[in-house]
Amino acid sequence: MRCILLAATAILSLVGMAHAALADDPEAPYVDDRSSAEAVIRSLYSAINRHEFARAWGYYGDTKPAKDFDTFVKGYDGTDKVDVETGAISDEGAAGSIYYSVPVAIRATGKDGKEAVFAGCYTLRQVNAEVQAPPFQPIFIDKGALKPSKADFEEALPPSCGDGPPPPKKDTALEQAKKAFLATFGDQCDKQFLGEEPNAFSIKYKDKDAAEGDPDKETRLFEFYCTAAAYNTASIYYMTDELGGVLQLQFAEPELDIRYENNDSDGKLLGVTVTGFHTTGWATNPEYDEETRTIRTFNKWRGVGDASDSGTYLFRNGDFSLVQYDVDASYDGEENPQTVVDYNTAP
After folding, report:
1. In Å, how far from its chain's centre is CA 88?
2. Does the structure show a pLDDT above 50 at 314?
3. What domains sit in the chain, N to C, each tagged with a CATH number?
């Protein structure tokens, strides 16, 4: 296996990219996690991206990825950054150890802007901690072989390693939505929600310009919980577009001019006037009804719920449109909203 490993390393060194890549970005995240086989692989690439080659070298066991450390470091000359994906992991126990097989694909970008894709498998080993003597050895990379791939990066990941059955096909749209959500709202949403899977819905529909016999189109809708306060929660929605990507769903809301007697919200409500519209990516206390294909938001202005606003958004022609907006601005201890926007009869 050592010759396979060294051969793969030589191939990568020739193109100046190796099986990981160097990123000049000082903001590359520091990841040093030995809790799982996947975490070790991601930690390896974190170390390479941050120029921390000794740390990267340390994730390997006795079988190293190059003949010596200097050769290992030189293997990354000319490389700017790396993207990495890992697949479904299989494991097998043997002689006091667990061996993990991890499918891996990387996209290495050179300093000249050229990209190369590599794919293959890593084998990692976890020795039973109960039988170890100091120094303790956590999960480590036992061997690995990545080869150049002609496939696009998104399609290059091996379905499995070894002779086991291939895992279920990866949900690309879901993964894109999760990445977009974490990139945009990872530092804005409550931490308790960041690791949760989103609610996912499939919406099949006829395009407005479809001819008779044309197949249905499909849109995927993903709801991510974001924040939870005393009486309001907020979600973020993403949906697939016609090009196969995902976009954050935006909700139209009216700008309101609310007048009270004596300019005091405790006074008599004199009127609510719509003066314009804006959009927001936040949906407050939302509910999606699969039967009617509507998202309804409900924003309490105070805990008792006697003052609020709510919007109803209908899926039509591949997107969600505002069809009704209700406002209860009376603060009178009762729920008595009035409709200020009504597009329910629109085509």
Report:
1. 17
2. yes
3. 2-168 (3.10.450.50), 175-342 (no CATH)
